[in-house]
């Protein structure tokens, strides 16, 4: 018998604002998951320590397996709209997910809320409250 969560389509969005030292990222993340495949899209603005604002967009493919409320996620590819080692390095620390780590399994806890949104945690730490996108 399949788990109820395995049959669900997860399509949700969340906004976040992260900061490390003087670098910031203000962005939205859209997550789509269905039948053990999906994608994560992050788009927004990177603000450098000098105050320069750069639009960024990254799209990553994923595969996953569900074990209870645990999702074992593997990022399978990543396309980013900008290049530059300085920005790429800073950006990787500002994202809620490690989207550039291929062939590494990450375990996330997906807890569905009463309103249909998902609270996504890793190692007990809340990462996102992803609001359900209506069909």
Helix content: 10-25%
Care to count the β-strands? 8
> Which strand order spans the largest sheet, edge to edge or round the barrel?
1-2-3-4-5-6-7-8
Which runs of at least 5 residues are low in confidence (pLDDT < 50)?
1-6
Q: Sketch the topology as an H/E string, one letter per element.
A: HEEEEEHEEE
Radius of gyration: 15 Å
Total DSSP helices: 2
What percent of residues are in strands?
over 45%
General shape: globular
What average pLDDT do the residues reach? 84
Largest sheet properties: 8 strands, antiparallel, barrel
As an assembly, this protein is single chain
**End-to-end span in angstroms?**
26 Å
User: What structural class results from the helix and strand content?
Assistant: mainly beta
Describe the model:
Helices cover about 10% and strands about 60% of the residues. The protein contains two helices and eight strands; from the N terminus they run αβββββαβββ. The longest helix has 10 residues, at about 85-95.
Give a nutshell description of this structure.
The chain is mainly beta. It is 10% helix and 60% strand.
């Amino acid at each position: 018998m399949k788990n109820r969560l395995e049959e669900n389509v997860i399509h949700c969005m969340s906004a976040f604002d992260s900061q490390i030292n003087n670098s910031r990222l203000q962005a939205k993340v859209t997550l789509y998951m269905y039948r053990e495949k999906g994608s994560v899209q992050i788009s927004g603005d990177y603000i450098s320590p000098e105050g320069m604002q750069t639009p960024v967009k990254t799209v990553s493919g994923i595969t996953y397996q569900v074990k209870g409320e645990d999702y074992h996620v593997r990022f399978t590819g990543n396309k980013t709209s900008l290049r530059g080692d300085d920005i790429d390095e800073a950006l990787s620390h500002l994202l809620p997910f490690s989207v550039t780590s291929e062939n590494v399994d990450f375990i996330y806890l997906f807890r569905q809320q009463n309103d249909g949104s998902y609270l996504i945690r890793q190692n007990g730490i809340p990462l996102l409250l992803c609001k359900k996108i209506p069909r």
